[in-house]
Amino acid sequence: MNEKKKRVIDVALELFIEKGFAQTSIQDIIQAAEISKGTFYNYFPSKNECLIAILAYVDREGDQKKKRACQREGQTG
């Protein structure tokens, strides 16, 4: 994932937590992420797709953390 797309995901996640999904507009996201509307739509066809990308990203991050924890346990156990 490129850095700009990751930044959009991070910013959108923060806004969704702060304001709620329904109260956060695409305009809020693009202003906070300092990107154009075209860039947002290049990454995500809709706000719902942005949320799906956030959930997938969080899931992958959680899997990676579990894997690292298991590897550490294997090294010390």
UniProtKB/TrEMBL annotation:
<dbReference type="Pfam" id="PF00440">
    <property type="entry name" value="TetR_N"/>
</dbReference>
<feature type="domain" description="HTH tetR-type">
    <location>
        <begin position="2"/>
        <end position="62"/>
    </location>
</feature>
<keyword id="KW-0238">DNA-binding</keyword>
<feature type="DNA-binding region" description="H-T-H motif">
    <location>
        <begin position="25"/>
        <end position="44"/>
    </location>
</feature>
<dbReference type="InterPro" id="IPR023772">
    <property type="entry name" value="DNA-bd_HTH_TetR-type_CS"/>
</dbReference>
<keyword id="KW-0678">Repressor</keyword>
<protein>
    <submittedName>
        <fullName>TetR/AcrR family transcriptional regulator</fullName>
    </submittedName>
</protein>
<dbReference type="InterPro" id="IPR050624">
    <property type="entry name" value="HTH-type_Tx_Regulator"/>
</dbReference>
<dbReference type="InterPro" id="IPR009057">
    <property type="entry name" value="Homeodomain-like_sf"/>
</dbReference>
<dbReference type="InterPro" id="IPR001647">
    <property type="entry name" value="HTH_TetR"/>
</dbReference>
